[in-house]
Write a sequence for this structure.
């Protein structure tokens, strides 16, 4: 579900060049639809996360499945840049946000041991997206044009996601010391308020925000950057796919290591590697170099992303996990919203991507500094009992 939902949204990176060439719309204008995606996802993640605490992730993902197919089929018929920005940006953002936070929050309730690996495996679907949806989109664009390709992906979302959403189950209730199931707890406004204003949440949320702010531009524009450096269209898409494959492997590898050495330690390491990799992209221009950096960068950002959910679960109770992680995802989406449009603006004005990678690298370094401020679980006022 993560592969199809997030892959459909991020496939806009593959549509960017052919859409711009066919319609005459600017890259910054098309990229702005992705910025709207992330802005809408920001608030949608919080709302869907809270909804999953109350009604379960099956409800949220089923709604998201219906909306995603509708959004893509309507966006494929857009005749103006504004129409495309509003349709793709708002509807796809609302739909995609119904999956990530609710599903990750749900899986943290299913596993007490090996939780980092479990969350990493579930989030690995997003790592599969560049290996599946993006190459499929590229092939469909080559064969049928961007409009038909986007329409087809919308129909595919309906076919795959609606049945999958019906298989989602709530996590089992926690067990009381007596061995009996503990009574279900309902989040209160006061408890949620304390959690969202605690130092632990603020450090978590803003580290997540800076992390995503740093890598969103390099991820979204890597296809266009590779083409700018002289690579062909399919070779450029393959770099994007290699990033995704590395992110998939990184999620599993880092999840296993985090269960052994701790989520905070692994998060600091992956954030540091991410910052160095972003700066290193400034020096690449050959396909082999792009592949090397794609592997390093993909492992770093892919492996680090699931760790935020594990850290949140260490501090906060499962009964408010959807709300808390939805709020953290809201901040991360606000960070993600800046990269696509920022990269498009840089290219439109400077005709290269250098300043995108410089700015992104500096923000990535800031995320490392924030991550070092995490306190050990046990000092959080809103932590699980």
């Amino acid at each position: 579900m993560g592969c199809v939902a997030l892959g459909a949204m991020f496939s806009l990176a593959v549509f960017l060049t052919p859409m711009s060439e066919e319609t005459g719309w600017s890259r910054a204008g098309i990229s702005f639809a992705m910025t709207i995606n992330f802005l809408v996802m920001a608030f949608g993640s919080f709302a869907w996360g809270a909804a999953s605490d109350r009604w379960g992730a099956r409800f949220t993902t089923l709604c998201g499945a219906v909306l995603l197919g509708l959004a893509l089929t309507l966006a494929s018929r857009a005749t103006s840049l504004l129409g495309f920005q509003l349709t793709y940006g708002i509807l796809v953002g609302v739909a995609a946000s119904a999956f990530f936070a609710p599903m990750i929050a749900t899986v943290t309730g299913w596993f007490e041991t090996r939780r980092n690996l479990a969350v990493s495996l579930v989030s690995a679907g997003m790592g599969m997206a560049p290996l599946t949806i993006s190459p499929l989109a590229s092939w469909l664009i080559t064969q049928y044009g961007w409009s038909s390709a986007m329409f087809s992906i919308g129909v595919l979302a309906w076919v795959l996601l609606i049945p999958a959403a019906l298989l989602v189950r709530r996590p089992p209730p926690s067990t009381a010391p007596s061995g009996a199931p503990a009574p279900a707890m309902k989040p209160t406004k006061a408890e949620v308020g304390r959690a969202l204003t605690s130092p632990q949440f603020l450090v978590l949320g803003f580290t997540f925000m800076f992390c995503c702010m740093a890598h969103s531009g390099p991820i979204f524009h890597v296809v266009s950057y590779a083409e700018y450096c002289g690579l062909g269209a399919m070779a450029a898409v393959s770099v994007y796919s290699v990033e995704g494959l590395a992110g998939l492997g990184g999620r599993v590898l880092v999840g296993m290591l985090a269960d052994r050495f701790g989520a905070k330690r692994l998060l600091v390491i992956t954030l540091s590697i991410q910052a160095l990799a972003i700066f290193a992209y400034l020096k690449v221009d050959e396909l082999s170099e792009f592949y090397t950096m794609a592997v390093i960068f993909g492992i770093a950002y892919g492996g680090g992303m699931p760790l935020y959910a594990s850290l949140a679960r260490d501090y906060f109770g499962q009964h408010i996990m959807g709300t808390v992680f939805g709020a953290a995802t809201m901040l991360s989406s606000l960070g993600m919203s800046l990269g696509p449009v920022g990269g498009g603006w840089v290219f439109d004005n400077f005709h290269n991507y250098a300043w995108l990678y410089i700015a992104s690298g500096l923000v990535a370094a800031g995320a490392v500094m924030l991550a070092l401020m995490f306190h050990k679980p046990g000092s959080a006022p809103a932590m699980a009992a």
